[in-house]
Amino acid sequence: MSEPTTHADATAPNGWPWALLRGFREGRREALSEVYHRHADEVTKQLRYGFAFQAAGRHHRFVGCRSAFELHDALHETFRRAFEPVARERYDGLRPYGPYLRAIARNVVLRGFRAREVQFPEVRADGESTAGPIEIVDEGSATPEQHVGRAEVRAVVGRFLQTLPPDDRRLLEVRFVEGKSQRDAAEVLGLGRQQIRGREAKLRQQMLRFLRAEGEEGLVAAGLSLPLPLLGPSLLELLGEVMR
Amino acid sequence: MKWSDARLDRLIERELCEGLPPRTRARLHERLRRDARARARYDRAVDAVRVFEGDVDVAPTELAVVQRWLDDGWMQGDATAERTLARRAWPALMTALAAALVVLLVRPLGDSAALRPWTDDDGWQARGPGARRGLALEVLCTADDAAADAAPVRARACELSDLMGLAYRMPEGMPGELSVFGIDAQGDVMFYLPTPVDPSGITVDPGRWRASSVSVRLAVNHAAGPLRIYGVVAPRVATVDEIRAFAAALASRAPAEPGDPSWIDRVSSGSGPGSGPEALAGLCPEPSSCHAAELVLTLRSSRGTP
């Protein structure tokens, strides 16, 4: 595949700039990093919420990585495989990269198919069909257990937010409720970007320490049996409550 | 390995906030894989980060965590490749460096074409009333593919296609271990001594300029633009974790100017991530036990192009 030089053809068939595709295939670190940023979110969601598939005539559903650590591990393994020299060189840039990555992610998951059947409950018996290609349907919602766990954590984060001064809450609102980038947040709040970055990092650390301090008497993540509402207040509502 | 819950939580917190050194991370992962209770603690912390960062399905911090794992893998690959390349390229660079140092010794205050200002009052020594004088650093670059006898060595004039070497000088009677790291134009930390795969530094040989064993193929992972290099001689070599923290503290600050205290004083007296007296307490237990130097140079993508 030749690389055009006209401005109109500045992007490769897969939608990437040619320079990115070239850097990716050469294994340049900044190109790999950009590809990761472009595609990590979609792969993460697939790994988190799972997918249905058919194997050997039976229907199964991968319920998604229940553990964040397993999710991170699978995400890492997916990109590690995708970024191996052979895989990079084999990618021609003609097809979209997202589906290619999701196929690798599915393979990462299916590798443990037989060893970890607990994560693959059979959803329909179908003994008539024989082995055939694996058929996959991506799914996209959290399980009730995940909703309950999140509601409990929301309560702790809400208590943490109550301990913060107004300017810190405003920073969190601008960044994570309004969804502004660090650069835009810096402009809105009249601060430097590095200040935003530093304060944000400090708040995240404080929040985790607060979580740790409350941990022994608060959450027991392994035993989620409390009759809490499935959906707690959003971060905006939490912030609104403590800012009033 | 037996870790208390408190230690486990601290490690998880560090992993999520700033990243653990590769070996510590590997031990944490081993524990998380075999211990469901430990995994639950990790999961709970991640869930809190998701709520904290906008009640999202996937927090930006999570993606950054996995990116660090990938980065360390790439760095390990880079370092392996660099070690292989360095073994091949090192004799040529050492020959050129040795020649440059001979010039320096003969004409220490000179301004030769090969070695530009290289004096006792050059800009990269520690300055200021509180500065701890002693260490001096220099960066020397030469073309990667040049034959040893034909390779001109340039002080602080480097291109991305070059091999970069480091030289240092410590006064007589000041022993210690030298650690050196950089911050490139993108704010990324560059490990020279030690690296994530090689925790060793250099036991300094005081008295005169010495070539270090560092040979860096700049094209591998450096970005064009300003490169800040920081060195410290301390009772022991800095850990990769400490270097990450120092780099985090220094990346947001402007490079030092004449009259500024040394970088270890600035880190020690600063606030924010990686700063404060405790940041240096482990490496420099006594204020007089460390000597620091820094310099800044511009890496050019090709001759004459910043």
Which labels suit this protein?
heterodimer; A: 244 residues; alpha+beta; Rna Polymerase Sigma Factor, Chain: A; Arc Repressor Mutant, subunit A; 2 domains; 10 helices; B: 306 residues; six-stranded mixed beta sheet; four-stranded antiparallel beta sheet; 7 helices; 10 strands; globular
In short:
The complex is a heterodimer of chains A (244) and B (306). Chain A is α+β, with helices and mostly antiparallel strands. Chain A is built from ten helices and four strands.
Question: What is the helix content of chain A?
Answer: 55-70%
What do the pLDDT scores of chain A average to?
A: 74
Number of E-state strands of chain B: 10
Kindly give the count of domains of chain A: 2
Number of helices of chain A: 10
Largest sheet data of chain A: 4 strands, antiparallel
Write the layout of secondary structure elements.
The complex is a heterodimer of chains A (244) and B (306).
Chain A: H1 18-26, H2 29-49, E1 51-55, E2 58-62, H3 68-82, H4 85-90, H5 97-110, E3 122-124, E4 135-138, H6 144-162, H7 166-177, H8 182-189, H9 193-215, H10 235-243
Antiparallel strand pairs in A: 1-2, 1-4, 2-3
Helix pairs in contact in A: 1-2, 2-3, 2-5, 3-5, 6-9, 6-10, 7-10, 8-9
Chain B: H1 5-17, H2 22-34, H3 36-52, H4 60-106, E1 136-143, E2 154-155, E3 158-159, E4 162-169, E5 177-183, E6 189-193, E7 202-203, E8 210-217, E9 225-234, H5 240-251, H6 263-269, H7 277-281, E10 291-300
Parallel strand pairs in B: 3-10
Antiparallel strand pairs in B: 1-2, 1-4, 4-8, 5-6, 5-7, 5-9, 9-10
Helix pairs in contact in B: 1-3, 2-3
